[in-house]
Write a structure and sequence with these properties.
Chain A has 179 residues and is mainly alpha-helical. Chain A has nine helices and no strands. Chain A has two domains: 96 residues, RNA polymerase sigma factor, region 2, helix turn helix motif (Rna Polymerase Sigma Factor, Chain: A, Orthogonal Bundle); 83 residues, Winged helix-like DNA-binding domain superfamily/Winged helix DNA-binding domain (Arc Repressor Mutant, subunit A, Orthogonal Bundle).
């Protein structure tokens, strides 16, 4: 069943400017929220939002409703662009906080899932079943865009060990989600 | 590589702990997108925040600018209108560059001056600064850390505001150069293409890589 957001994104793919404007009105608060949460800087988040909607206009035709929801497709663009912005900045803002503090602050609170519904709760439930370190690595990488090397420094472990932890975590996560 | 390893590579590309690859097979892309969709559930609890008013207008202007740049690359394949070019992106760079280059560019402060900061479309890096004096028709082109590929030359073009066909200004050496009798105005776009020795064989840009609108410097 296609949602309104799906329809607006599909119309945007046909270069429908009115649909693009409506899509902006509907999803920009969510995407700006994501950009703010990850970059923690209003000016940077505004730049990110501009990049996100430039991508949306130019790449909307890559969206395939059979492969997922438009809302998630858009959120992924916002997340990836936000992480790119952090990397460009050399993560000057995040560098000052310690890993565990940043992770705790960034980790989603299941009670605020709202329209996130079952998907989010399931994912969080599965994340909670992981070993703490695996979970921290995955969340840190997801919300701050850390590379394997940065995670290795932050968690004071060899890169290969980080790779192993990450992959074990991701594998457990997938089997939990597929249950 | 086993299917499991392929899937874990895709998971790490979605997470960002492995770099996104430029050449990704369809299968690998589908695996990555499935992971992106799974992990996107982590974004659902994020609180919405209303962006500042004027943000959509800013995005629209930026899009007009981006589309103009892409249109310029297509000029050989078809005419395209040039109206509505946004100067926003260029102005931001100008603000920075003019501060740095003022002593070089503006020995006399009392004449009306225009500047185009020509940037690489692919990376956004500043490639050249063109200073232009409408009173004398003299343009000074200053390369900023770019060299033409081996056995190739840079050729400079001007796309008049509101028109679709670039007009050649001439080949450029790798050093600062002054060109005389240039007719240009704010709203025009300077472009630099990469050409074989002797310049474009077609009279239109072969490989246009750098673009910059002309803006007035106060």
């Amino acid at each position: 069943m296609a949602s309104e957001i799906d329809d607006l994104l599909l119309a945007t793919a046909r270069s429908d400017r009115a649909a693009f404007r409506l899509l902006y009105d509907r999803v920009s608060p969510k995407l700006f929220g994501i950009a703010l949460k990850i970059t923690r800087d209003r000016a940077v988040a505004e730049d990110v939002l501009q990049e996100v909607f430039t991508d949306v206009w130019r790449k909307a035709r890559n969206f395939d409703p059979r492969r997922g929801e438009a809302g998630a497709w858009l959120a992924v663009i916002a997340r990836n662009r936000s992480v790119d912005a952090l990397r460009r900045q050399g993560r000057g803002i995040m560098g000052a906080t310690t890993g565990s503090e940043a992770d705790m602050e960034a980790a989603p609170d299941p009670s605020s899932a709202g329209d996130g519904g079952v998907d989010t709760l399931t994912l969080i439930d599965c994340l909670n079943r992981l070993e703490e370190r695996q979970r921290d690595l995955i969340l840190r990488a997801y919300y701050q865009g850390d590379s394997r090397e940065e995670l290795a420094r932050r968690f004071d472990a060899p890169v290969n060990t980080v790779k192993t932890w990450l992959r074990r975590g991701l594998l457990s996560l997938k089997s939990c989600l597929d249950e | 590589m086993t299917g499991k390893e392929r899937d874990l590579d895709a998971a790490e590309r979605a997470l960002g702990t492995l770099p996104r690859t430029r050449r990704e097979s369809v299968k690998a892309r589908h695996l990555r997108e499935r992971w992106e969709q799974r992990l996107a559930a982590l974004l659902k609890p994020v609180e919405p925040v209303t962006p500042p008013p004027g943000m959509f207008a800013r995005i629209s202007e930026h899009l007009a600018h981006v589309e103009t740049l892409h249109a310029l690359r297509r000029t050989r394949r078809g005419a395209r209108r040039w109206q509505g070019i946004s100067l926003v992106a260029g102005l931001a760079v100008v603000a920075l560059s003019t501060a740095l280059l003022r002593p070089v560019l503006f020995p006399q402060a009392d004449t009306a001056r225009y500047v185009a900061v020509v940037t690489a479309e692919a990376t956004g890096e500043t490639a050249m600064v063109v200073e232009f004096d409408t009173a004398t028709g003299i343009a000074t082109v200053i390369p900023v850390g770019i060299d033409a590929p081996q056995d190739r030359h840079f050729q400079m073009w001007r796309v008049p505001a509101g028109e679709s066909v670039p007009v050649s200004i001439g080949l450029l050496p790798d050093t600062p150069v002054t060109r005389r009798n240039i007719v240009a105005a704010p709203g025009d776009v300077f472009a630099i293409s990469v050409e074989q020795p002797g310049g474009s064989p077609t009279g239109q840009p072969t490989d246009a890589r750098y673009f910059g609108p002309i803006v007035k410097v106060e």
